[in-house]
Every structure is written in structure tokens, then in C-alpha cells.
Design brief:
Layout: E1 21-28, H1 34-44, E2 48-49, E3 61-64, E4 67-70, E5 81-86, H2 90-98, E6 110-114, E7 117-121, E8 127-131, E9 141-149, H3 154-163, E10 169-172, E11 175-179, E12 185-190, E13 202-207, H4 211-219, E14 223-228, E15 231-238, E16 245-255
Parallel strand pairs: 1-4, 5-8, 9-12, 13-16
Antiparallel strand pairs: 1-13, 2-3, 3-4, 5-9, 6-7, 7-8, 10-11, 11-12, 14-15, 15-16
Length: 289
Amino acid sequence: MNDAPTSRPGFDRAAEDLGNIVELGHVNVAVPDQLAATRFYITGLGLTRDPYMMTGTDNMWANVGRSQFHLPTGGPQILRGRIGLALPDPAGLRARLEGLRAGFAGTSFALAEAGEALDVTCPWGNRFRCHAPVPGMSDLGMHYVEVAVPPGSAAGIARFYREVLGARASCTDGCARIVMGEAQTLICQETDAPVPPFDGHHIQITLADFSGPHRRLAEHGLITEESNRHQYRFQDVIDPASGAVLFTLEHEVRSMTHPMYGRALINRNAGQTARGYRRGRDAWSPPAG
């Protein structure tokens, strides 16, 4: 009897590798007005306020599939790029956002068609590209963060994430792409336009190998905060060969033993309305398969 495994030609096993970064957990930007943030993120985008954490009036955590936005009160922080979201019901999304125009008059709020996607700017200037669900992507999630980086920096940025963080990263035509979990990517796109100074916003990632990157970051003097046993932070992305700073973006780095890793997040069905209410449809349910 032959117990050898059967070969299945046609499978690209490497395509299923995530690398060391297993999750893009949240994006944190300060907002000056919690009421306006609720209108934009919850009413407009159709996200769900976390009912268990940060329930006061000085911070809001907004769930988007398995990821979150963290929105503490403060002077507005602007991510230097845009955030790509996959959101169900594009027609409902557009209608909800159109309904906010009058209330956000005089702010940076804007809507524009971008092919089959919708480009949205929040009242303080953060930009989002909202995609309809596509094959291979969840119906609801934070699928990429795209940041503008200086000319000639993308190749070194990709090397940094590969060699220091152990991530899957590639660079083509001035664009570095870093795998940050299943169907999640950090995109670093070179631009000739001036890159605004860093204002303190951050992204949170989770690593499988937590200590190796910490050791390599420490060797380069890049650790900015030893938060606790499950977490540390760094800001500067450098060329590992020269040590030159290529870009600054704060990373909150967590281990897979962090108490909140894999925490189940509640997501509502934003299509529910009082006028057209459907029993049993309050929660968002991902499609079968």
C-alpha cells in the first residue's frame, strides 16, 4: 500500500504564505470632534462602533470586519495616502455618504467616482477608496493602507520589511507592497510631490516572530516604546544597508499572545433601516464559501 501524498499539480503553495506579519489590526488617527466622526465612520461608511471598548466620549473604536479604526479626540491627524476598504452594498454606501454632504459643508468632505470604486475624503482630510467586494477579498474589511513615500525609497522600504520584520515584500516601478495578513497590504508608492511631515498617526500590526524583529530594530536603535510584554513600537523605516531613514510611520507591534489578538469583532448590517427592517438581519454575515 502506497501512503505517499498525492501530488496536486496547479497549486501555488507560496501564494498562501503570509510572511511574518499576520494582521493589520488597526489604523489610529486623532479626530477633533467625536460627533462628526460618528456621522462619518458609523453613519456614512456603515462601520460599527465597538460596544465593549472605548465607549466614552473621548475615543471611539470602529470595527471594519476583522480590523478597526481607533479615533481618539485630538488635533486631526492625516494619513499621508489613503485607506482601501471593501464594503458591501455600494449603492447603499453612496446614498448614506451623499446624505452627509449638507452637514459637512465647509469641511474637507468629498465624494468622487474612481472607476468601480468610490473615493471618499473625511471632514478632516483622510482619504478612503471604497471597493465593492471582489473575488478573493472579504465583503467587509480593511484591505490596504497606501502611503506616499519619497522618490527612490520604495526598494529600500521593501528590503526593510523583508530583512528587519521578516515580511513578504516586493518592489516594482517605485511601489513597495508588503503583505500584512490575509488579503491585507501596506502599499508604499513613490511620489514627486512633497510628503507632508509625520503627525503621529499609527498602524498596528501583529507578528508571528515577535522577538526577532525586536532584536533587529533594537540593533538599529529604532525602538521608540517598550509598551509591555506583548507590544513595542517603532517609527522610522530605514534602508538596512545604509541606515538612512526612508519614511516615518509609527508601528504598534503586537505579538500573537497579545490578549486582544483574534478578538471577535461585532459588525452590523449597515443596510438595516427602521423603514425597511428585516428580521434576523441585524448582524453582518460574510457570504458562504
